[in-house]
Amino acid sequence: MPVLLIAPFASFLLALSSVRTRRSASATAMFGTVVSLLLTLLVAWGLARRSTPYVASYQYINMSVAFSGPTNFQTFAINLVFHVDHLTVIALLMIEVCVIAAIGWHQLMGRSEPGAARFHALITLLLFACTGVLVSWDLAELFGFWALAGALTYLLLTHRWGFDEAASRARIALALPFLTDLSLLCGIAWLYARYGTQNLATLLPILHTNPGWTVRSIVVGSVLLFVGVAGRLALWPLSGWLTMTSATAPTAASAIAQSAWPVVGIVVLYRLTPIFAASNRQTLQAFLVACAVSAVIAGATSLVGNGPRRVITLAGSGAVAVAAAVVINGAYHQPATFAIAGVAAVLAVAPARAAALLAASTIANAMRTDDMAEMGEAWRRMRASSGALLASAIVIGLAASGALAFGVSSRSRLGIALGEAVLLLAVGAIRVFFGASFGILRRRRAFDPDRVREPEGARGFPYWLAVASAALLVASFLTGWLNFLDGQKHPAAGPLAIALWAAVAIVGFAACALVFTRGKDGALALSAFGGGFLGRYAAGGLGIVDRFLVEPTTDAGRRVSDWIAAGDGALGRFATASGQLALAAGRGPALPIVVGLAIVLAVVFALVAPGIAR
Amino acid sequence: MTLSAITQQSVGAGIFSSAFLLSILIWLPVIVAVGIAIMPNPRGRYDTLIKQIAFFANLVTMFILFIAYHQFENFLPTMQYEEKIAWLPAIGVTYHLGVDGPGIAMLMLSGLVGIASVLASIGIRERVRTYFALLLLAQASVNGAIVARDMFVLILFWGASIVPIALLILGWGGPRRVGAAWRLVGYWGLGTAALAVGVLALYAVTGGRTFDMETLLGTAQSPRIQIGVSIAMIVAGATRLPLFPLHGWLRDALAEAPVGVAVVVSGAASRLGAFLLLRVVIGAEPAAAHLLSPVLAALAALTVGYAALAAIRSVDIRHAGAYLAMVPGGITLLGLAAISPLGIAGSVLSLFTGGLAAALIAGVCATMSERAQTRSLLLLSGLAPRMPNIAWIFLLAAFALLGVPVFASFASEVMTFFGAFKTQPIGAFAVAIGLAITAVALAALLGRVLFGSPNSDAPGVSDAALGETWYLGILAGALLWIGLFPGGPKIPGTDTPLFDPGFVSQIAAGVSDITSNYTLPAPAAPAAQ
Fold first, then answer.
1. Nearest CA in chain A to B341
2. Of the candidates A345, A157, A349, A155, the residue with the CA atom closest to the CA atom of residue A242
3. How many CB pairs under 8 A join A and B?
4. How far apart are CA B120 and CA B55, in angstroms?
């Protein structure tokens, strides 16, 4: 079982030590990922023959820190606890499939990207880190792999060295997720401080039985953990690190980030729900509201702006938010086993996001524009990419329907909000297809529409990825799939419920089709206006924050530095002057100096000593 | 002075065994320094030889340290490798040396930083003899302060480190070296004075018979005395580590000092501040520690937050590196302020990892400014493609500073935060926010300096030379090694260490004694439902 980790790490070491050319780098990365995939299948086959997960533990740190006090605080240990169950292998398979597709696409479409050896080495190391997160059962170990994956994601998203826009946008890919990662660390630390353990196997049973536990402590820990996971799930407003880099980062990097992190994040969220469930209902309600708001706003913002990659990113974030709401809802309603439906939805959305990004980038590269208003005729000229885009958009729109059918009542307030979100993100996702595929592809300066065609070889990867996501979408409606994922029995969702939720997404598709059929240019002009409006207000808001918060705060730091330096200088000059005065006094006549000193001291004493003045 | 040597045989047998092992670590660099200083060097003919001598002196010291590290018995709570010679019996001063877990961590740090500083100084061309003599003296004084078990001897070594470092800055520093050197002398002098006041207070309270650390720190004192002594020690530690607001020397000292000196100051000499706080305030003044822990936590949060904010607004890369080098000190202090066993253990590990991380970030910023021939962040842009080695090390330094896993700083930060959230949750949150701001500062710095478009107005750049790559690599490699194998690599399938007994295991010796005053009470059983 540790070979699941060793394989991608070995591939990384191989890439780091020996590979120099672009082709060999991508071949090494592809080989390592395929080996990892085969090993994962092998483990999955082994799991199919047993009823319990694989568990292995290795010591990382073991330090004795006290000889007295509560026993669970006398020793600090971080163990590498590997826990592999059905959910782990399926999630890992999804990530590996997405990585293989991204590498394959990049081999053909990323020839102009610099630093191929570096790029592919980082991909294999990211796969290693994501694998580590999925198999970790110790929260400190999980955080270790999580933070490592975060650092590698930043390096991948900022891969294009030498470009100002890429560099400036990639800053947020380090700063914003790091903030939420710190929240995750604080949550784990908070729980450890109260329970003395960070191993899920020993922590979960004692949440309500450990001496000294309080609801407040679990609530605080839950909030910190949720914020930490939400950042990497890119739930609005924490999605900026994906949306801002979607156009400037290499497409393969963006595709991997948008497919791997939702899978990793939703699995971790699912594993942490027992902790959330141990808090109070108000906390869970707050999480549900946050997820719903995130889904609605992500869906709404995917309707404005004409950048296809940004729209896909936002629509995908909205779908993940809906799925996260289903997972949380599973903790809200006890006993509830439909939380796994949210995970199944994300397992379908992840490859769809990757496929949509790859297909949209193929189309954008061929048409040499990142503006949907200037795109068109992709359905005729680039059928495979356009078809992949269509399939991915449908999956993104429908993915949450199954999850919602299992666990959310359409008549509840949550149901209405999530239904609205599904409608919006369905429109947002499908409009990329309509915007790129139909309408007239106009001639521009140095651009001949007749030369637009599907690039050979690259068409397959987004297409097959979309097919895989469609298969997973269908599976997510089946209780047998859910039973397999978490090993529990699930009641089937009613066909009416499925039909209702699917109809919401289909209505969104139809509405978008109608609008684009009636007037594509008008629709895109409106969305461009909306995007510009939103961009201006966002820039204005950020400007206000920068002017009234960031600048004064950082300016205060600079001023303090200058004051301290000035103060030191003044102190030094005072010391010098007093020393010179002392030297001068030593050279001068003694009697007048003594008399003068006596007068000064007498006056000072008279002023400060009470009673003398009277 | 009578030499009635009361020596204790070194614990454990092995390759190397000496009753004066710790004295060798102190006086070998001094002897070599004196030798370098008096050897003739007409017109710089023997500059290369002098550099080699300095390097091999550090290498031999490191070799001895490795042996001491391997022979160190981590299950013994007492001092090891003790040496005790009566020196000034009239006032109770003994030449008393010894080391425990935290001490061995500091010695290893000093050894690594020493080698790195010599390699970083390979480019010195002027007055080479004097430079390396002073550098070795600085290293010796730091080693002496670490292993001193007599407070008088500690003060001597503590104060002795000021002179060679100030002279190095004054003689080989940048354009503003004079102000930088005087600031360093002023602040460190203030700290030395505060240390002396605290030690003399302890001396007086314990009867004025001896300066031995075990007697001075082991004698029970009233809370008022503890608080007074602790405040003096906090001032001494805060000027050295440094901590806001007694950090005024740091920016100019690290920015104007030669690269090797910046590495020694940020990596080893400054860690003495936290080491002193651990030994005296946390280890020996529990009542004062409990009372002053919120103050320490506040100082930690202020230090980290201020350092990050100041780094964001810096326009000089060496200034930015200097501010960022303050961050590990704040995290170490948070662990001490936690006054919980795990927090204190985390701060002991953080002494080592923080020193390496601080030296790495200060060193890489200095090296980059030298290679790019400018310090201005307005000119430095898009250097990664042209300086790939330095760019990668810069990235490693940034990740080490943030505590990204794989680096040893991850383990120390995890332990510090885990230990701090029980007793100082507000301080821990504040430090976490400061770390987030540090991430913003690093993101801005990396994005501008490494990944942006090249600036055509900037001077020509060149990648790191071999010596520079080596010294940065040693610092980064040590962080990676401890991060990957904190317990030491084991023979597969067994618990037998392969060739490293495990850094975390070795430094644990003596930590339980320090934490025995701070064990957490067992929480009350939950109320019946």
1. A65
2. A157
3. 208
4. 11
Residues in chain B closer than 8 A to A178 (CB atoms): 402, 436, 439
Judge whether B480 is closer than 8 Å to chain A, CB to CB. Answer: no
Substitution target in B75, B306, B309 with the highest count of A β-carbons within 10 Å is B309
Residue B492: asked if its preceding bond is cis (omega within 30°), the reply is no
Under a CB-based contact definition with an 8 Å cutoff, are residues B431 and B335 in contact? no
CB contact under 8 A, B247 and A143: no
The Cα–Cα gap between B223 and B286 comes to 9
* Tens-place pLDDT, residues B135-169: 999 999 999 999 999 999 999 999 999 999 999 99
Distance CA A302, CA A313 (A): 8
What is the spatial distance between Cα A502 and Cα A496, in angstroms, rounded to a whole number?
A: 10
Interchain proximity A61–B486, CB inside 8 Å:
yes
Contact residues on chain A for B404, CB-CB shorter than 8 A: 147-148, 150-151
Contact B230, B280 (CB under 8 A): yes
Virtual torsion, Cα A90, A235, A505, A534, nearest 10 deg: -150
Cross-chain Cβ contact A164/B399 below 8 Å: no
Residue linked to tokens 């400061």 = B434
Two tokens, residue B170:
């004054």
B212 phi and psi, to 5 degrees? -60, 135
Hey, CA dihedral for A26, A28, A31, A32, is it positive or negative?
A: negative
Instruction: Report which residue type is found at A6.
Output: I
Q: Which two tokens stand for residue A274?
A: 């027992």
Q: Rounded to the nearest 5 degrees, what angle is found at the Cα of B191, between the Cα atoms of B187 and B195?
A: 170
Which residues of chain A have a CB within 8 Å of the CB of B450?
161, 167
Give one word for B81, left, alpha or beta, with left for phi > 0 and alpha for psi -120 to 50. left
Contact B121, B258 (CB under 8 A): yes
Neighbours of B529 (CB within 10 A): 4
Within the 18-77 window of chain A, which residues sit less than 8 Å (CB to CB) from chain B?
59-70, 73-74, 76
ipTM exceeding 0.90? no
DSSP B359-403: HHHHHHHHHHHHHHT--BTTT----TTT-HHHHHHHHHHHHHHHT
Of A63, A73, A140, the CB nearest to B520: A73
* Residues B85 and B3: beta-carbon distance below 8 Å: yes
> B186 in contact with A at a CB cutoff of 8 Å?
yes
pLDDT in tens, A370-393: 888 888 888 888 888 999 999 999
Among candidate residues A39, A289, A95, A249, the one with its CA nearest the CA of residue A158 = A249
pTM higher than 0.90 for the full model?
no
To test the contact with chain B by mutation, choose from A113, A225, A561 the residue with the greatest count of B C-beta atoms within 10 A, namely: A561
Distance of CA B120 to the CA centre of its chain: 17
Residues A378 and A363 sit within 8 Å (Cβ to Cβ): yes
**Furthest-apart CA atoms within chain A: distance in Å:** 110
| C-beta atoms of A63 and B505 within 8 A | yes
Whether residue A114 is preceded by a cis peptide bond, meaning omega within 30 degrees of 0, is: no
Per-residue pLDDT of B58-75, as tens digits, reads 999 999 999 889 888 887
d(CA B255, CA B266): 11
Tokens of A402: 């199954």
**For residue B520, what pLDDT band results from cuts at 50, 70 and 90?**
low
Check if the beta carbon of residue B178 is closer than 8 Å to that of residue B265: no
Chain B residue whose CA is closest to A551: B313
Contact status of A140 with chain B (Cβ, < 8 Å): yes
DSSP string, A28-88: HHHHHHHHHHHHHHHHHHHHHT-SS-EEEEEEEEEEE--SSS-GGGTEEEEEEEEEE-HHH
Query: B453: which chain A residues are within 8 Å (Cβ-Cβ)?
Result: 162-164, 167
